[in-house]
Write a structure and sequence with these properties.
Bound molecules: flavin-adenine dinucleotide
Number of domains: 3
Radius of gyration: 20 Å
Number of helices: 13
Distance between the termini: 45 Å
Order of helices and strands: HEEHEHHEEHEHEHEEEHEHEHEHHH
Number of strands: 13
Length: 365
């Protein structure tokens, strides 16, 4: 059975929990509010499945084919403005739903915490659009996805690279009707910090929160990580990298332990498609940057090619050299360096030091 010696050995993908037919595994929060598996030995029959599906214990062999890379964006401008980069996710999701399929992805719940759900109707895709910089809770969605796969439905499962590897390991076999899309992922910050930040905003803004975007493009364009809190009475909080949560996220002080030694940052992903911001676009294809968002679209498999063929009339697309394209996006292959003050930061957080003070103490030089 799964036994964690080091927190870095668990990415929180929930594959072990989903596979355990005895319900012997619960996901329990640590003091930073990251979830880890806990075994109930009264139920465990020592079948070893939890170890077998762990994507960290069973690292995937990397393919040697060079993936295809493109600069791309959705030609529907409003959808692109509502997405983090080029608005490709929504097109892929739409294609799957139009073929009577199911799409799994990350949404904000009623408390603005992030979890994975499935959607079956096109208007519901909007809930999944946009990057949410907190770890998403997978819950039982791998099990749900398998049920639909066994019924023969098309399934698109989207998420961070660890979540996609977790799903694939959990399924234990290939399915022709499964499509997967991961991201170039910097890392996922602690829910504890996010909850504290939500409380902090609530106290200051004192209004009913309706929506959050981490990548609002209306004022500063695509490049600037503009954070938007939209309230019921048309009030808004708008800030960018000067916002305290964004400072915490971008300083790498509050990411999950496993993010500092991520096993899924690699060139050859197990997903069919990898999506990212095309950060190097100005040096490679400046004409593809109109500041409304350009995606780096990476095709990892024949199924990925198939999806691209089916959406290509709805996107502007230019093929680029893969190695060149990932040069300015280090998160493709490299884990962030652990901030040496991370533990003290969390101890202060536990002791109720306020976020602005924490940022002043640990982040502002
Ligand atoms: C935590 C995180 C870190 C990222 N780090 C980088 C980076 O370092 N470099 C880079 O180039 N791109 C990064 N991205 C990806 C990038 O921001 C865009 O999501 C990607 O380019 C797709 O954009 P889009 O416009 O096509 O679609 P969008 O509509 O913006 O993307 C929506 C997709 O993101 C998924 N998603 C959103 N939030 C989460 C979450 N918390 N967990 C799992 N899945 C989620 C949804 O399920 C959906 O599939 C990151 C995304 C996330 C969520």
């Amino acid at each position: 059975m799964i036994e964690l010696k080091n927190k870095k050995d668990c990415c929180g993908c929930y594959a072990c929990k989903n596979v355990c037919s005895r319900n012997a595994i619960s996901m329990v929060e640590d003091e930073k509010e990251f979830k880890y598996p806990k075994i109930n030995y009264n139920y465990c029959i020592n079948c070893g499945l939890c170890e077998k599906v762990c994507p960290i214990i069973n690292e995937s062999k990397e393919d040697t084919d060079i993936p295809l890379a493109y600069a791309a964006f959705n030609i529907d401008e409003q959808t692109r403005m509502n997405s983090s980069s080029g608005g490709l996710f929504s097109l892929i999701a739409e294609y799957i739903l139009n073929n009577n399929g199911i799409v799994f992805g990350a949404i904000f719940d009623e408390n603005f915490l992030v979890k994975h759900i499935k959607v079956e109707k096109i208007p519901e895709i909007s809930k999944m659009m946009g990057s949410k910089y907190i770890q998403s809770n997978i819950g039982e969605t791998y099990k749900e996805a398998r049920k639909y796969l066994n019924e023969g439905k098309l399934v698109l499962y989207t998420g961070t690279p660890c979540q996609i590897e977790g799903l694939k390991k959990y399924l234990m076999r290939d399915y022709d009707n499964l499509y997967t899309q991961d991201l170039i992922c910097h890392g996922v910050p602690s829910k504890k910090v996010w909850k504290k930040y939500l409380d902090y905003r609530k106290n200051i803004d004192n209004d009913i929160l309706e929506n959050i975007s981490f990548r609002n493009k209306e004022n500063r364009g695509w490049n600037e990580y503009e954070l938007l809190f939209k309230y019921k009475n048309s009030n808004k909080y708008i800030n960018h990298i000067e916002d305290i949560y964004m400072k915490i996220f971008l300083s790498d002080i509050a990411l999950r332990d496993s993010c500092y030694d991520c096993k899924f940052k690699k060139k050859h992903r197990v997903s069919d498609i990898t999506l990212a911001d095309f950060w190097g676009i100005n040096s490679i294809l400046p004409e593809m940057n109109d500041e409304k968002g350009t995606s780096l679209l990476i095709i990892n498999s024949l199924k990925g090619k198939d999806i691209l063929n089916n959406i290509k009339d709805k996107i502007k697309l230019e093929q680029v050299n893969f190695e060149e394209a990932i040069k300015q996006n280090p998160s493709m292959i490299k884990s962030p360096k652990e901030n040496e003050k991370r533990e003290s930061f969390f101890i202060d957080l536990e002791n109720n030091v306020e976020l602005p003070e924490l940022v002043e103490k640990y982040i502002v030089k």
